[in-house]
């Protein structure tokens, strides 16, 4: 914890240097590795960080868990957690313009924040999880995917130890809502990081016994709202006051189901491929039901888009509809032979030609509809807001589907080369909105390669550098054949600290927010960009004359500070520093028996003989028609029930 002196600087309330973790903490660690100690952010930088974060970054769904009034109240009371503050500086400096040299400084803040959390693992807290989520997103945007992948496991352990997956009725509404948003943000990160692989899943949706996020107005003004839960799927239209963040969470959960399905289908024996049409039908109906249940104000239309042109809700509105289209493309491309995400030709040949043709057309039509969204977005006067990496990833995949359609079925789809190039360039304009971060620059570079060679016979979009979402991360991969990880294979993870294309130097001014549709330049919340150059380790001249560091920055595990009277009443940080005990008592009085940690009952289940399609149906709890006479679907209800019980 910190307090501010009369100069506005933050210091520990306990200035002693005999803390047990002091000798191995962040500042001292920097000295051991030959780096200058990190200079603590000054008051001006802190205020710019707060302003830019809540003006440009907070509306991105994964960053919406902080409550501005509560954060500022805590800051002015001298109780701002140092790790969280450093994480905010790091993320905000990467996504917006905080001044010359701030990107490199922000990266050092992220390193320092991570070091502080790692040196204090014995004291998990909600604030540490908030800081870790920000660090993970910074790592992903910086193409350091392995770091984010590993940090996610620690954040998950913290979250479950603190029982954030349960409602805590003893807290005020703001604190409960902030914790809910934090867990839902972590779920969306995890659903991307695991890539549909059950072995990598850290946060199961079934384990989140919490409400969906409320709407932004209620969160901002402390107006309690009952929103319902993720499951079961609603059978009635969403209420008019549904929050856009809740819709986004629900849609990304549906995308994770699609991803899990398609990954497991690739392991499906050819004899079971006949079950695929029914599985695709069930998932597509879920997606259609989601869209049908949207309130009129959330439906996609040019009018609804323009009404949000200057609203902080523009980003999530765009992503809801882009993701809805992308989910369909992900689902239907499973039968598009030649794509690395598709079944082999021998399996596709077992399906009815009409079904394969239907999937091909559906994938193409949803890609075209996504391009139309991009066209309308680029025409907005206010330009593109700050977005997550999801948007350029979807733009890349959209262009890839269009080139595939042109190369394999241009006659039937009446698709010309000029149309494909025009659509792909529109996708490129959208992708350039994140060109100022290393992962975004990688996507732009690969999309430019695809456009340059996509119309040639050697430019098969099924094999070029492919981008898949990993918690918002896009991984640039070399051409490869379809490979499905098995129990004896390892997933290769590679940190890309040096981008494959030139990106702006951290000491250079960055591009400004907005978009110019006429010349294809997409504006972001950065100042006018200079000529891109290689990343260099240079310090901001404004910091060079500062000779002192915060001597207490490296001691994160300080005694708790007693808040001023009334500070934690209706404050989103209520209980944020509370730890946990090993009884692991949850708020509905269901504890965990430590003896169960050593139980081997789970080894008795025999999954090896279960058909892959049965596992998928059991995991999704999909209800299929019985004795319908169709060529696919189960005909024995007892068999399906038994497999569900075995899977659980």
TrEMBL record:
Task: Tell me the compartments it is located in.
Answer: Nucleus
Region of interest: Disordered:
1-26, 455-482
Q: Name one GO molecular function term.
A: DNA-binding transcription factor activity, RNA polymerase II-specific
* The keyword Nucleus is annotated on this UniProt entry: yes
Top-rank taxon, per record? Eukaryota
> Which taxonomic lineage is given here?
Eukaryota, Fungi, Dikarya, Ascomycota, Pezizomycotina
What keywords appear on the UniProt entry?
Metal-binding, Nucleus, Transcription, Transcription regulation
Q: Does the keyword Nucleus apply?
A: yes
Concerning Pfam families, the annotation shows: Fungal_trans
Official protein name in the record:
Xylanolytic transcriptional activator regulatory domain-containing protein
- A GO biological process this protein is involved in? DNA-templated transcription
The biased composition feature labelled Basic residues covers 1-13
Q: Name one GO cellular component term.
A: nucleus
Extract the CDD domains matched here: fungal_TF_MHR (cd12148)
List, for all copies, the residue spans of the domain called Xylanolytic transcriptional activator regulatory: 51-222
Location (main, coarse): nucleus
């Amino acid at each position: 914890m910190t307090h501010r002196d009369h100069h506005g600087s933050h210091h520990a309330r306990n200035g002693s240097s005999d803390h047990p973790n002091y000798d191995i903490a962040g500042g001292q660690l920097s000295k051991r590795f030959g780096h200058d100690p990190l200079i603590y952010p000054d008051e001006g930088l802190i205020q710019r960080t707060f302003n830019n974060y809540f003006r440009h970054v907070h509306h991105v769904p994964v960053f919406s868990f902080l409550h501005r009034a509560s954060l500022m109240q805590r800051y002015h009371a001298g109780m701002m957690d140092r790790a969280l503050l450093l994480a905010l500086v790091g993320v905000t400096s990467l996504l917006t313009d905080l001044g010359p040299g701030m990107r490199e400084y922000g990266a050092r803040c992220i390193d320092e924040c991570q070091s502080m959390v790692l040196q204090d693992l014995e004291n998990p807290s909600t604030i540490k999880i908030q800081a870790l989520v920000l660090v993970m997103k910074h790592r992903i945007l910086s193409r350091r995917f392995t770091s984010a992948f590993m940090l996610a496991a620690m954040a998950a352990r913290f979250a479950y130890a603190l029982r954030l997956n349960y409602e805590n009725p003893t807290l005020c509404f703001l604190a409960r809502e902030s914790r809910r948003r934090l867990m839902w943000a972590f779920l969306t990160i995890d659903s991307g990081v695991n890539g549909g692989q059950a072995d990598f899943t850290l946060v199961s949706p079934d384990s989140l016994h919490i409400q969906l996020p409320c709407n932004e107005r209620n969160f901002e003004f402390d107006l309690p709202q009952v929103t319902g839960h993720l499951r079961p799927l609603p059978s009635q239209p969403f209420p008019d006051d549904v929050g856009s963040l809740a819709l986004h969470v629900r849609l990304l959960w549906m995308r994770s189901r699609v991803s899990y399905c398609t990954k497991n289908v690739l392991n499906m024996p050819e004899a079971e491929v006949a079950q695929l049409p029914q599985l695709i039908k069930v998932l597509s109906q879920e997606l259609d039901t989601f869209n049908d249940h949207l309130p009129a104000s959330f439906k996609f239309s040019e009018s609804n888009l323009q009404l949000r042109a200057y609203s902080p809700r523009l980003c999530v509105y765009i992503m809801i509809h882009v993701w809805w289209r992308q989910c369909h493309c992900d689902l239907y491309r499973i039968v598009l032979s030649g794509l690395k995400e598709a079944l082999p030709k021998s399996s596709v040949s077992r399906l009815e030609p009409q079904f394969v043709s239907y999937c091909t057309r559906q994938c193409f039509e949803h890609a075209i509809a996504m391009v139309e969204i991009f066209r309308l977005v680029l025409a907005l006067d206010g330009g593109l807001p700050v977005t997550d990496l999801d948007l350029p990833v979807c733009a890349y995949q959209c262009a890839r589907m269009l080139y595939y359609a042109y190369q394999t079925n241009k006659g039937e789809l009446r698709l010309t080369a000029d149309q494909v190039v025009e659509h792909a360039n529109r996708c490129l304009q959208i992708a350039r909105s994140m060109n100022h971060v290393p992962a975004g620059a990688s996507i732009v570079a690969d999309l430019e390669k695809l456009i340059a060679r996509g119309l040639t016979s050697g430019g098969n979009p099924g094999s070029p550098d492919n981008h898949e979402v990993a918690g918002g991360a896009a991984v640039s991969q070399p051409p490869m054949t379809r490979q499905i990880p098995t129990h004896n294979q390892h997933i290769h993870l590679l940190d890309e600290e040096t981008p494959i294309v030139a990106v702006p130097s951290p000491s250079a001014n960055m591009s400004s927010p907005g978009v110019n549709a006429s010349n294809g330049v997409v504006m972001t919340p950065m100042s006018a960009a200079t000529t891109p150059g290689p990343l260099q380790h240079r310090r901001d001249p404004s910091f060079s004359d500062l000779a002192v560091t915060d001597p207490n920055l490296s001691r994160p595990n300080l005694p708790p500070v007693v808040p001023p009277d009334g500070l934690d009443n209706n404050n989103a940080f209520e209980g944020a520093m509370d730890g946990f005990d090993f009884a692991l008592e949850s708020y509905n009085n269901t504890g965990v028996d430590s003896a169960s940690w050593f139980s081997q009952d789970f080894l008795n289940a025999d999954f090896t003989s279960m058909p892959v399609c049965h596992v998928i149906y059991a995991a999704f709890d999909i209800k299929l028609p019985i004795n319908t006479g169709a060529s696919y679907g189960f005909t024995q209800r007892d068999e399906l029930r038994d497999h569900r019980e075995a899977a659980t």
